[in-house]
Design goal:
The complex is a heterodimer of chains A (about 120) and B (about 375). By secondary structure, chain A is mainly α. Chain A is built from four helices and no strands. In chain A, helix 3 packs antiparallel against helix 4. Chain B has about 375 residues and is an all-alpha fold. In chain B, helix 7 packs antiparallel against helix 9. The radius of gyration of chain B is 22 Å and the shape is globular. The model of chain B has no long low-confidence stretch (mean pLDDT about 80). The chains are: A mainly alpha (about 120), B mainly alpha (about 375). At the A-B interface, helix 1, helix 2, helix 3 and helix 4 of A face helix 2, helix 4, helix 7, helix 11 and helix 13 of B.
Chain lengths: ~120, ~375
């Protein structure tokens, strides 16, 4: 509601310039853009997204157990609830270690040494 | 909670001529126009003033007394700027993107516990609600960057998405100790438990600020703060809009009020994150060692709400000040450092904190450091 209002006021106030071709190009520090900007980007973003999904879902599963943890201290089922939390955290930790060992967490995949031509 | 429910009930008696959704709409209006927007505006002014002070400059001082109306002038300027969508861009997504950011950060204001009697909606999953709603910002940034068909924007947007998404995990895991301690996801309940008074008897549920509940929660507070910084793209983590490498990142092509909306969303998000640190770890509306509702005599509810509101705001704005302070203290990280710090540094620490807090709770029957020291509970 607010956002259309603010944009609407802006629409009434602002000047409307001519849409020259130069102006409508995207900004690349004054250079003519080469090709589309919808380029193939780094596959690592995709890996990050997948790892995030797995971690986030598991974390959502911890929250209910965490909510009843305080009650469980007084009503005697604390060992059960604690082991449940521990199980989830351990699962996540194993997943983390797996990713770490596999090298998915390394942003820089090995640096090629610059070898000058002799 | 019972008290606030009664308070709401008495309100219904006075203002029964409007249906509940009408009041909901009006309170949303009030929250957005009297809290989120002025804060977003004033924050830009305060940030510039702080920046100026740290660099030994004067800062804005022309518009109004000591430059106080600078943000109004900025708003008028932004409104009157030409709006511009690059030709190759996706018009629909370009229009949609700032909406995501503003909605994501302004909706979170609804569950912020300004005072015991001043919570927009004290929903019983408040903590998760804030987490869920502020994550809307990530698709907002990604859509905006994609739609503007600009290589700088795309790179910035991708960085923003991966960064926000990665830091979401340490943030949620550093909230988990608080949930363990308080046994509730309701922010009102969580804050209420953080009271402590030296005048009179403490209820068994009171255990002072969560930050000082045990050593693990103390670290969790810093984890939440760092994660919050990263999620709001503030300076040590502002890679998505790193102006020295990506021109302006995801908002390169945005001009006029659309850019203003992005900026507003960011500042509101900073406020929400700071309010979250305050509410979950720094005692929210409680004055340290003093409970104004247990003084021995009853203060009027309105006055209590007024005092609590101000205490909460002071704490939150202090956290906001630290955020702005850091901007002029720390250099920007590199992408690989950023991701490495999240996954290899913060995440194991957060796990450690969760397990540590659980063990502490088990070992000491849920008592806080304060309760153990003072022999309560």
């Amino acid at each position: 509601m607010t956002v259309p209002l603010m944009l609407g006021v802006g629409y009434l106030l602002r000047p409307k310039g001519k849409d020259t071709r130069r102006k409508m190009t995207s900004y690349e520090c004054g250079e003519e853009p080469v090709g589309s900007a919808w380029i193939k980007f780094n596959i690592r973003f995709y890996i990050v997204a997948i790892v995030f999904i797995i971690f986030d879902v598991e974390m959502a599963a911890i929250f209910p157990a965490a909510t009843v943890f305080k009650e469980s201290i007084t009503n005697g089922s604390v060992a059960l609830v604690f082991s449940e939390i521990f199980l989830f955290v351990a699962l996540l930790l194993i997943g983390l270690i797996y990713c770490w060992v596999r090298g998915d967490l390394e942003w820089v995949k090995g640096v090629t040494k610059f070898a000058p031509n002799k | 909670m019972v008290q606030s429910a009664q308070f709401a009930h008495s309100l219904e008696g006075w203002f029964g001529f409007l249906p509940l959704w009408g009041w909901a709409a009006i309170s949303a209006f009030i929250v957005i126009y009297f809290l989120a927007l002025p804060f977003g505006g004033l924050a830009t002014y305060i940030e510039r003033k702080i920046a100026a002070d740290m660099q030994d400059r004067i800062g804005p001082n022309r518009v109004g007394p000591i430059g106080l109306f600078q943000f109004a002038a900025d708003a008028i300027k932004m409104l009157s700027k030409e709006d511009f969508i690059p030709k190759g861009g996706d018009r629909f997504l370009f229009n949609l993107a700032p909406l995501f950011v503003v909605v994501g950060s302004c909706t979170a204001f609804a569950v912020l516990p300004l005072s015991k009697y001043l919570i927009g909606a004290d929903v019983n999953i408040g903590v998760i609600f804030i987490l869920a709603v502020t994550t809307l910002i990530a698709p907002g940034l990604l859509l905006g960057s994609w739609a503007s068909e600009n290589k700088w924007s795309l790179l910035g947007g991708l960085r923003a998405a991966s960064q926000i998404v990665s830091y979401e995990i340490p943030v949620a895991l550093s909230i988990l100790p608080v949930v363990l301690i308080s046994g509730s996801l309701q922010i009102g309940t969580i804050v209420e438990q953080q009271g402590w008074t030296v005048f009179g008897e403490n209820p068994a549920t009171y255990h002072f600020w969560n930050a000082f509940h045990n050593p693990f929660t103390f670290f969790s507070m810093f984890l939440l703060f760092v994660g919050g910084l990263a999620e709001t793209n503030r300076i040590p983590f502002d890679l998505p809009e790193a102006e020295s490498e990506l021109v302006s990142g995801f908002n390169t092509e945005f001009s006029g009020m659309r850019f203003g909306l992005y900026a507003l969303g960011e500042f509101c998000d900073v406020f929400v994150m700071s309010a979250m640190v305050t509410a979950l770890f720094l005692g929210g509306w409680h004055i340290p060692f003093l409970d104004i509702e247990k003084l021995g005599f009853a203060l009027p509810t309105g006055l209590v709400a007024f005092i609590q509101f101000h205490v909460f705001m002071i704490k939150t704005l202090l956290v906001v000040f630290v955020v702005m302070w850091l901007r002029w203290t720390l250099p920007r990280l590199r992408v690989d450092q950023l991701m490495g710090m999240c996954w290899k540094g913060l995440l194991p620490l957060a796990f450690f904190n969760v397990l540590g807090t659980a063990l502490w709770m088990w070992a000491f029957k849920g008592q806080s450091l304060m309760q153990l020291l003072m022999g309560h509970g």
